[in-house]
Design a protein that fits this description.
22% of the residues lie in helices and 20% in strands. The protein has 640 residues and is an alpha/beta fold. It is elongated. It holds the Pfam family FGE-sulfatase. InterPro entries: CTDL_fold, Sulfatase_Mod_Factor_Kinase, SUMF_dom, SUMF_sf. It comes from Amycolatopsis thermoflava.
Length: 640
Amino acid sequence: MTYTFDPLVPRPIDRPTEVPPGPLTEDQLVALDEAKIFAGPADPADRPAWRERLREWRADARRRHGYTGAAYERPGAAWAARCRTVAQVWLWDELLYDFERGRFTPERFLADARERFAGLDAVVLWHAYPVIGLDDRNQWDFYRDVPGLADLVRQFHDAGLHVFVDYNPWDVGTRRAGDDLEELASLVADLGADGVFLDTLKKAEPEFVEALERAKPGIVLEGESKLPVERIEDHASSWAQFFADSPVPGVLRAHWYERRHMQHHVRRWHRDHTEELQSAWLNGVGVMVWEVVFGVWVGWSPRDAATVRRMVTVQRAAEDLLLHGEWTSLAELAPGAEEAGVYGSRWDLGDQTLWTVVNRSDQDYTGPVAPGIPLLGPGVPARGIAAFLRAETEPAWVKELPELQHDPDARFPHRLAVRRQPARTTGTPDPDAVVVPAGPYVLTVRYRARETGMYQGAPYVDEWKPLPPRLHDARTLQRDGVLANPAAVAATEVTNAQFTEFLERTGYRPAQPHRFLAWNTDADAPVTYVDLDDARAYCAWRGGRLPTEDEWQLAGETGLLRRGEPAVWNWTESEHSDGRTRFVMLKGGCDYRAEGSDWYVEGGRRDPDYSVKLLLPGLGLARGATVGFRCAWDLPEVTA
């Protein structure tokens, strides 16, 4: 396949914007509104005029857009200007949720964040994508149907964090309830959320902002990617997603426009976060710590985690300097520093001057940098950061700074997803079960490329924004293996009547009853609203187990598997975990199909070779109207 773009290099819209030499014309001033980052000039002699042009643009843009800054005076929103680290976490991340005990574990999640990132200031609790569309549940259901969610929010608040909920404007094809704005405002009020992340949106419309402000005074809205200049007025924060910096570090346009506007640098698929961390450090902004992207492990290296620890510790201590001090970007440093790849920003407030410094090179720099005491140790480590403070009277916070060592280890911390292995069965299969012979096999599996990936690894590595045809396109993979013994796969799915008999004979009750057998009425229809454990319990009662996804496909390709009505996806014995995400492969497809967005799980009946990777939620939310199951049995080895 030939692509019209190189996914490993920034797109034109991601690249920094050159600032023309001044004085600037009206057209040039307006054009600078579209920048993500103002590119830094290579020649130090050009920098005083460059800074003057930036001040000229800011004054002109504020005049043109009638900027007041009133939104930043709201007491309830003041925290956003100091929100340096925010983590995006799926509700069912195994650091946040314990599947064995069936409860949320914020204490475990926060302990990991304290150890590796010096703690967090906020979290985005991600909920629906990438499982929404499997059935008709809408985005609000994936929050409101979670037992104990309000208590989880309270626990984060008690730990000193602020909480964002997520809004998916593209959710138009699931069941309709109230108006989106009414639903979101109600959710914010009920959960006590502090902010809303605007998925796929750069901004919210004014009436949207006003309604949310009524629901929660001081609500903070954070859009994805570049926020239009005129909306900095009422959006207190924004993602700096896929923002490419210039070779000589540049200035973030939105934060330069309003220092209290917090931006969070993020490149979700990159394994080296040096550039975005250094840009955040030089601009006095924050980062999005996102280690599990929709079920895919993209963990941060020890070096990058150490840089976050060092950065945010100083930022929190010196926040008045960073918010209110006079900011000089690309400040003059000691002779020889810049030639070695070292750049810095200067922040002056009263008798205090802080230099935030980065080293763009791969060599440690040990020469002179800036006057004052080093806050992060002497010199500037390769691909790392440093800070220097000069003050007539040393601030009390300097003595309270912990020792913060740089870690040079930039290796990616790989994780492998481990498959749960079922016990061998000895029961008798159904008479019409489809026999899958022992021996080697090779399968072609068809799937749709999604951000979830499939079995191992990330679907995108070091890519900028994945776009079609590298997103949501049809793909194949090969599965091969050896069946040590033949297996028999049930020709039909388990029905409601059969599952009811199981309940009556065994007294089975799930440990987590939420959504168990909800709304099942037709005795002959495939049983649904059962999760993996429910299906496993039934199959074990029958002396069997669930078929693996490969056994299901091998049996299905004989043409002998039959589908119930309505058609439903089938659970398979394919549960994997990498310690942060649990997932399974679904087979068969279903009659339900959510229309209107490519972000939904695909529906419709599917051929046996088609698979969907489903991330497993907890607390009963894996149970739904479109997933049932059939059993399988291990057969004795056939001997001559």
